What we know:
By secondary structure, the protein is α+β, with helices and mostly antiparallel strands. The chain has five helices and eleven strands; from the N terminus they run αβαβββαββαβββββα. Strand 9 and strand 10 form a beta hairpin.
Amino acid sequence: MNESFCKSDDVGKKGEDIVDRYFYSKGYTVYSTDDLNKDESHPIDKIYINKTNGRLILLDIKTKIVRTKYPDTGFPLRNYHEYLKLQKKNKLCVILMFIDYIEGVCYGGKLNHLNLNRIVEHNGVQLQYPMVDGASTNDTIIYFPRCAMNVYFKLTPNEIADIKESSTELENYRKPEDGAVK
């Protein structure tokens, strides 16, 4: 499998809690899709509504880091298709956020922006994004370049330590000693 989704649901929940605190501090009410349908698959993790202006945000949160040999991160292609379907049907934008304990930040962007075709030069090679990799539907991953993502906020030292302690990244993803990929 060509991904590094943290094997523990616990680390994903920790990432979601960090993002919840961020949006709550910005005046949003947080709605978790887990609260709505615990036993069903759902294309997004959270719905945030600004208490002042009514702005609605559909958000999926990934607690994972950039890959070791590529300046990107991604998620299952099947999720990508669910996001596109959700956007088209509801005329709302899906935002993806990645909690990266190595870089110590939360980054991401609107799917419509991440989805733009772009070439990224990395180690003398031109990489075409979005990049799709995988042998079957179950392990096909779509990748987006880190340079196309916005940094939303920095993680606290305690948040970094908490996620690092719970994280079990797979070997094709960057380790702390690899340094940050920009």
